[in-house]
Amino acid sequence: MSEKKSQAEVLKEKLSYEVKNAWEQCDEVQIKKAFDLCEGYKEYLDKGKTEREFSALVERKLRKAGYQNLQELLNKGKKLKKGDKVYHVNKKKSVAFAIIGEKPLSEGINMVGAHIDSPRIDIKQNPLYEDSGLVLMKTHYYGGIKKYQWVTIPFSLHGVVVKTDGTSIDICIGEDDGDPVFTITDLLPHLAQQQMQKKATEVISGEDMNLLLGSQPYNDKKVKDKIKLNILKILNDKYGIVEEDFLSAELEAVPNFKARDIGLDRSMIGAYGQDDRVCSFTCVKAMLDIQLSGKTALCILTDKEEVGSMGNTGAQSNFLKSFISKIIYLTNESYSDVLINICLENSSMLSADVNSGVDPSYADVNDKMNASFMGNGVVVQKYTGSRGKYDASDANAEYMGTIRRLFNEKNIVWQTAELGKVDQGGGGTIAQHVANLGVDVLDCGVPILSMHSPMEVTSKIDVYMCYSAMKAFLESK
């Protein structure tokens, strides 16, 4: 027979707040759902390693689910009605899609959003050179990385080459089992005494991160740079491209790793690009699974977040507002900028991006009372920014209370966090740019280990809770 709780124990249970472990809050059925969900997530990780590939993958999923191309409907002058599903792919690098709800758009939209670019190694416009019996490619790293983590690992080459006649050639070398892979070399420890004395930021120079491409010369003694010529011939034979075509190419070297289970219990996922494809996936999956709600539901997946969200495919662009304006135009008898602004001001968003999970090996960079832990569910981050909340999106208390109430009612296990100690950490998301439109925005995502490395780690139960949170929000009234 259990002992009766003391008055203090009852009072503590009533008044105190304790973070819960998601694994312990879930039954076997929910845990199985989490594992099953993450098997589908791995497909997105392996088939959508670049923003172009992820956009194309999402478009295929949307068309299969009955979504229609919004631009085609606009060109035909077809009106939208309740239950219609529409999408638009912007410059092949960002995607927006929506389900028209029962309520008028003037009452606002439930939006989720994430970014689909990740840190990587971009190939320069004039990249190929031969030196010391080798052919290499000049690169320029993209996003905030520890450069020393990105050498001596296998890379695959992804992207597009646009030829002088306007033909686009898709490139993907290294993902199939029979494909060659590429690497960036490093100095052997025997000769690295001076290198090892440098600061971590200087151990590997960005200008020296050159991709190793080949070493076999073309069999002709009359020409110079025979190895480079051989590489060019291989590329020409397979893709019909010449060296000048690199000037109008977008090529990315990304880690060649496949998504794998981590741990003997298989409770985690290790893969490249989980920042922010883990949140992109959960947003997409939630949109595909929701039942029609009162409000219109919308998802936006943007590019360029890792370098500031600029450009015509980033969150600072007009893409979201343009997409919403087209929906309003096709659902209302009358149309004006006033209607767009009213819609945005009455809309709400969960900006889905990852947070740094506490790593016990480096725990001192966190304020543990305000940090996210692996396995404790989806992370709600009231404000972003760094060192005094500069460049922050800071949700108001009322909206924070609304999301808190929703998650508690739906039994979603969640936690709150900042990104590191006040004067140590920080970072931005797409939230601030959507908030600038008048939308209530709150950051919400998955804790992650080894962020911005070639092999990031997430917990399967956190992925499941993020999906559940996005679905609950999209279906909310």
TrEMBL record:
<dbReference type="GO" id="GO:0004177">
    <property type="term" value="F:aminopeptidase activity"/>
</dbReference>
<keyword id="KW-0479">Metal-binding</keyword>
<comment type="similarity">
    <text>Belongs to the peptidase M18 family.</text>
</comment>
<dbReference type="GO" id="GO:0006508">
    <property type="term" value="P:proteolysis"/>
</dbReference>
<keyword id="KW-0862">Zinc</keyword>
<keyword id="KW-0378">Hydrolase</keyword>
<dbReference type="GO" id="GO:0005737">
    <property type="term" value="C:cytoplasm"/>
</dbReference>
<keyword id="KW-0031">Aminopeptidase</keyword>
<dbReference type="InterPro" id="IPR001948">
    <property type="entry name" value="Peptidase_M18"/>
</dbReference>
<dbReference type="InterPro" id="IPR023358">
    <property type="entry name" value="Peptidase_M18_dom2"/>
</dbReference>
<dbReference type="GO" id="GO:0008237">
    <property type="term" value="F:metallopeptidase activity"/>
</dbReference>
<keyword id="KW-0482">Metalloprotease</keyword>
<protein>
    <recommendedName>
        <fullName>M18 family aminopeptidase</fullName>
        <ecNumber>3.4.11.-</ecNumber>
    </recommendedName>
</protein>
<keyword id="KW-0645">Protease</keyword>
<dbReference type="Pfam" id="PF02127">
    <property type="entry name" value="Peptidase_M18"/>
</dbReference>
<dbReference type="GO" id="GO:0008270">
    <property type="term" value="F:zinc ion binding"/>
</dbReference>
